[in-house]
Amino acid sequence: MFGRKGSSTRFLALAIGILGTVQPNADKINMKQSLLSEVAMIFLTLTLGLSSANAAIPGLTVVQNTTPWDSTDKAISVACPIGTVPTGTGYDIGGSLNQGQIYVTTTIQAGSRSVLVEAVEAQGGFSGNWTLTAKAICAEPLLGLIRVSATTNSWSATTADAEAFCPVGTVLVGTGAEILNGGNDVMLTAIEPTIDSVRVAAQEDESGTGALWSVKAHAYCADDSLPGQQVITSGSSGTLDNKTVSPDCPAGKGVLGLGGAIDNYGVGGDISLSELNPVIYQGDHWAYVKAEETAGTMINAWAWVLRGSVICADL
Ligand SMILES: [Ca+2]
Ligand SMILES: [Ca+2]
Ligand SMILES: [Ca+2]
Questions:
Q1: What is the mean pLDDT of the chain?
Q2: Distance (Å, rounded) from C-alpha 5 to C-alpha 218?
Q3: Which of 66, 270, 299, 301 lies 20 to 30 Å (CA to CA) from residue 109?
Q4: What is the Å distance from ligand 1's center to 273 Cα?
Q5: Homologous superfamily of 4-314 in CATH?
Q6: If we measure between CA atoms, which residue out of 5, 32, 21 comes closest to residue 13?
Q7: What's the CA gap between 253 and 285, in Å, rounded?
Q8: How many whole angstroms from 212 Cα to the centroid of ligand 2?
Q9: How far away, in angstroms, is 269 Cα from ligand 2 center?
Q10: 294 CA from centroid of ligand 3 (Å)
Q11: Distinct helix (H) and strand (E) counts, the chain
């Protein structure tokens, strides 16, 4: 159980396609023979006529959509207002008794205007009711918006992580993540942004699974002329407790995307990244990022750290 990070497998993959062309796979690039590349979509968004002379991010807003209150696995999408598209994704789980018993497995941009979020009850199920909220950070299309992804091979390692890189000449504006074929046994532990990449990590639960699963990182990128783009990270102290951190953009900047990462934990399968929640309130832009110990039988005995990040740019 200890030292399992050493068995973590990492695969980097980058693929580029242009949305609207007939063959989205045509430009697949294998970075390395052993790497699995996967095509993402690229939006070469023509913003002529859309850019405002006095705002770097016109139309910036956060929209959300919440499922019914019940006790089933869930998927929910939310669409950006007409004239805007997603920059980043986020999610929230509602319910007072579900702590650590719900795993978000998907938080991605889907279609041209929507964000899709999916979540499952942990192995064995959860008897109470809960909700899942999808959040989309939306704005009028930024110059050169593109979507890039990277996927690990389908293995059954205890942990896996993938990193998607923005193409040269672009910078990160938003993040997304997927666990593929993880059933009710695999949880997210990191969706961590840098200025030009996203690392997504996931781990099996305490009892593991024999399923062949993979993890997919999504990087949402824009032209590097985007003014003031930076990543701000807020880290918790190392304790045994569940944690929430609130990374905050500097004054005059807005949140385009966000992420979080659990670090320095010693016992496997018992802490999940349970909330990535972007907030715009009375002009202030920040986020809540939350991680929780799961409802398994192991008692985590190692102090662990939660980092939360916001991707900011000039308003
Ligand atoms: Ca249930
Ligand atoms: Ca396994
Ligand atoms: Ca299991």
A1: 84
A2: 22
A3: 270
A4: 20
A5: Proprotein convertase subtilisin/kexin type 9 (2.60.120.690)
A6: 32
A7: 8
A8: 7
A9: 11
A10: 12
A11: 0, 21
